[in-house]
Amino acid sequence: MFDELKKYCKQFVSLSETELELIEKYFESKHLKKKEFLLQDNTSCNFIAFVSAGTIRHFHIKDGVERTCDISFNNSWVTDFQSFTLDTISKINLQAMENSAVFLIRKQNLYKLYKECNKYETFGRLMAEQVAQRATEIAMSLASEKPEERFLNLIKKQPELFQRVPQKYIANFLGISPESLSRIRNRIHQKQKS
Hints:
4-stranded antiparallel β-sheet; Jelly Rolls; alpha+beta; 194 residues; 2 domains
């Protein structure tokens, strides 16, 4: 059941079979139905989760409107780092876009895991760096790229996106309307035909 997570961890840190067994001791498995929340705003985020299957949308609500911040697929880590590290109320929501499976570790268990095997501290740092890099990429893209550039980069990095996520959420993530996204897709399609 935890084989996918163990295999993922071994890519980054050399772990013995005994050390890998700690995953089953400290992580818990959770299945989410489509549209089910892993985290809702106005609650505290006390976990970090590994998406083993499915799609998780990160969004917050501003002036009554949902704003998609990111979309995570298999082999991604999701959390609200600010809420997790500072023990504050979360401002984001994590919602399954399709039936999804995650392995999550609660904060107190993460610290126990670190004490029991310091190799997981190295792994945790590497994963936090990946999440920070992703957040930086998104911020830079929104600040410096035109919508068509953001769209092309998104398709290049996540080609399965349009098969798995409704267009309105992709448009929201890109910071444009669904109609603008349709126009961009049509323009690109026309360019590819000629």
